[in-house]
């Protein structure tokens, strides 16, 4: 809920897309002026056009030599968007609320720190314009499907035993976001390490996967790490409620039907126009419980179903819907279903 709120605030207050929303209230102290961050990757995702940033736990003060004054540097930094005491209702299903304490960092702007020839410099460069689709342009599923197919194609080549190990691991991290973050970090480190890199973990839910990947050929390991990272990134974009609903969907074996429904929503050109559009009734479920579960899952990605079968988009849902599509696509493969 906190991530959804900060995204909404940034969209309202920052039309030029200079700031990034803080995704967790527990992490807000790590995204304040002078905090050092690590840019995790250069490539963007269809469900997350901006880069990911990882906290380091250090500030600029920690790396300055004694006698250097960081006060003047801090004055030049943009302090970010902070909140006062604020309450906001969550989803209409859960009726939850969230309290934002005064001074909590809601968004941040990064400034590259350049180190060259034993000297460092901090310069503020305007961010490149993020890849956006014009509102009037018709959205087609094919370009996005191409990215998903390429990133997930490694899973189609795996044995049933390995698919089961990955599926069980993914299900475990869907129940625990701290575990999800641990696995993301390990998978992101794989390309940066040499052949002697040890995939070790103290988490019982990750040991089977880490042990299996440890004995994989290097080329195969890199492909698996890239594919798993892509799926984990998509899961990271979903709410905790959505992750729980996806787990229930797996148990009910309705992921394939949900995938078709979300693909249908992405294909509709009005999903970016705040207009109302009809959903193919054949994509809804005859069972009341399955239909309730699916509608709740999809509505958390920014659309609202009406009793007449129409759908109303809210809050520019394309990126959120794309993340849900990637999650369903991967789970469909890992669970052995046919798309």
Explain what the structure shows.
- It is a multi-pass membrane protein.
- One of its GO terms (molecular function) is phosphatidylinositol-4,5-bisphosphate binding.
- It is found in: Cell membrane; Cytoplasm.
- Pfam families: Gasdermin, Gasdermin_C.
- This is Gasdermin PUB domain-containing protein.
- The chain is of the alpha+beta class.
- The chain has 2 domains: 2-122, no CATH class; 141-334, no CATH class.
- 43% of the residues lie in helices and 14% in strands.
- It contains 11 helices and 12 strands.
- It has helices at 2-13, 71-76, 141-152, 160-175, 177-189, 204-214, 218-237, 240-252, 255-267, 288-299, 318-334; strands spanning 20-21, 35-39, 53-59, 81-83, 86-89, 97-100, 104-108, 113-116, 119-122, 277-278, 303-305, 310-313.
- Strands 1-7-4 form a 3-stranded antiparallel beta sheet. A 3-stranded antiparallel beta sheet has the order 10-12-11. It has a two-stranded antiparallel sheet with strand order 2-3.
- Helix 8 (240-252) packs antiparallel against helix 10 (288-299).
- The longest helix has 20 residues, at 218-237.
- The radius of gyration is 21 Å and the shape is globular.
- It starts with a helix and ends in a 5-residue tail after the last helix.
- Mean pLDDT is 77; it is low at 75-79, 90-94 and 124-140.
Query: Whole-number average pLDDT?
Result: 77
Proportion of β residues?
Answer: 5-15%
Tally of domains: 2
Ranges where pLDDT stays below 50 over 5 or more residues in a row are: 75-79, 90-94, 124-140
List the secondary-structure elements in sequence, H or E. HEEEHEEEEEEHHHHHHHEHEEH
E-strand count? 12
- Please outline the major beta sheet: 3 strands, antiparallel
Order of the strands making up the biggest sheet: 1-7-4
What would you call the structural class?
alpha+beta
Number of helices: 11
Rg from Cα: 21 Å
Amino-to-carboxy terminus distance: 31 Å
Helix content range of the residues, please? 40-55%
Cα shape: globular
Domain Gasdermin pore forming: 1-70, 74-131
Domain Gasdermin PUB: 147-310
Main location: membrane
GO cellular component, one term: cytoplasm
